[in-house]
Amino acid sequence: MSTTGATAFLLHKIASGVGGMLGGLAMFAFWKPLNMLDACIRSGISTGSAVIFAMPVLEMLEFRVDMDLALLAGAIIGFFAWSILSMVARMLKRFDREEKDILEAVKDLREQISNSKK
Description:
Shape: globular
Helix content: over 70%
Number of strands: 0
Number of helices: 4
Oligomer: single chain
Order of helices and strands: HHHH
Radius of gyration: 18 Å
Distance between the termini: 57 Å
Strand content: under 5%
């Protein structure tokens, strides 16, 4: 079955979304959601980021745009989308507890990075 044009685009987006959902569900094994709302938010973020970023990433890496690769790229992006978001949120929460503004937080991060390189 050969698909072209808008149908192929839509099918690739659906495959990316399904992959993102699977990647987000795989993340549940590592970070269990607190409740059903938390699980829905995580799944939505994973699916949405996979739908948005899977096809451009495949094209940027010069892979063929195929259903299998769209599903795989969606799963990888969905898996990492939530982990990166939660990592940034935990970092910002820590700076909020320390009552630092964003400029002080960036300065603190630069110092931590420069100290880790030594």
